[in-house]
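Q: Please design a sequence for this.
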């Protein structure tokens, strides 16, 4: 039962990516390249994305309120804000 399920999943995977027409060494080569590219993308996301989110946040604050810096701190320090 589990064996049949795993075989069906393997057939689905190979037919979706057209791996069923490749020889075994070509399948291994494709999977190595795919896993290498996936690993590089994940490393890039974990190292670059948090830094880029901060840059996007500063740009969004500038585009929304027209000023740089911490807008929210000025709201707390100056509760009688006349304009945004």
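A: Design:
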């Amino acid at each position: 039962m589990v064996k049949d399920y795993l075989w069906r999943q393997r057939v689905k995977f190979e037919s979706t990516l057209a791996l069923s027409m490749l020889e075994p060494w070509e399948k291994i080569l494709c999977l190595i390249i795919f896993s290498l590219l996936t690993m590089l993308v994940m490393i890039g996301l974990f190292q670059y994305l948090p830094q880029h989110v901060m840059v996007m946040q500063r740009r969004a604050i500038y585009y929304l309120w027209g000023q740089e810096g911490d807008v929210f701190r000025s709201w707390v320090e100056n509760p009688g804000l006349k304009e945004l």
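Q: Thanks. Anything notable?
A: The chain has one domain: 2-77. Residues 6 and 12 are 10 Å apart (CA to CA).
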